[in-house]
């Protein structure tokens, strides 16, 4: 498998964690989101993913004519990995628990991350001309609101364990750790979020998460 | 089942379509996002979903002690419905095709909708004090960028059919139709998106989609 990503991309980071948790080998292909006007916008990358977003995963799918398949959107990629390589499972067995894990993952992927990614911040400072201070306040506002909602959800749920759901990492933890990385990078105040901090710490004791960290990628700067 | 939602909420609209496509009966409970300071912020709704976001689906899950389960996040709810009530299937059989459907759904749920929802627009006009004109330009920019990316993806893929993937509606169509509704409401220019318009039209010929429309909800204004 080939993973096209960027060391600091939160969505690429999620997929790296999932690949590592499943013990799957992959080749890392760097797509620099800033250099060369954004390599994700190149024709060669668009041929893989017309959305021009990282990550993209190229895999050999026996069921597909020609074999090779290019997948996009981090959560769709992880669901694919879960279906193709069931061990280690990133979704629990019971339907209601699976829905809970997915809801936590989506609470990050739909409510926090989209508001704080590079192209949005660029629009705010460029087109709307907001100041650096306003940009940081925006970042912290959405990161704070979204993670506080997640903290409430985890605090209220008896299924919360060593990890977001139970005592083994799931899809939710694959999304949580990159978001906490971003939150810390932008100095969001996480002091009122003990569940998130504790789970993050438990994750960061595992090789699968350490190996996936931005600073441990070949394209890290 | 009880679906807590709001007639104009895009995420609630997705779940209504999925429930209808599967022929499932449900009771609709209105949560007004504007009146009473936002009913989703009430203690009684937060008890169902601490995230304070619609939709929430309450179902009887036999596998859960006590039976009742409250689910949140539209895509997690639809995946739950797909696993519990497999017919009519909203995901195809082949793994690569399932990933493709999910990627299209997420391209809307993660790249377009989060930037254009009510609380974000409020922050822009309130905290950042942007003008009505700038707000509309923001809306049209992200709607335009996201839907153009989706159009490219559909144009490039041989699996695109009468609907987003093949000739029966999938999870991708459950997300597309509410997004087109929003785009039309905010006068986004869709003239360069023939695939989206054609698929939208095919969807709107089906009862499941018509019945799920905002104007056909009991809480419509």
TrEMBL record, chains A, B:
Q: Which domain of life is it from?
A: Bacteria
Q: Which residues form the GST N-terminal domain?
A: 1-89
Domain GST C-terminal span(s) in chain numbering:
94-221
Q: Which Pfam family, any one of them, does this sequence belong to?
A: GST_C
Q: By its UniProt entry, which Gene3D superfamilies does this protein fall under?
A: 1.20.1050.10, Glutaredoxin
* Family matches, as NCBIfam families: maiA
State the name under which the record lists this protein.
Maleylacetoacetate isomerase
Ranked from the top, the taxonomy reads: Bacteria, Pseudomonadati, Pseudomonadota, Betaproteobacteria, Burkholderiales
Gene transcribed to yield this protein: maiA
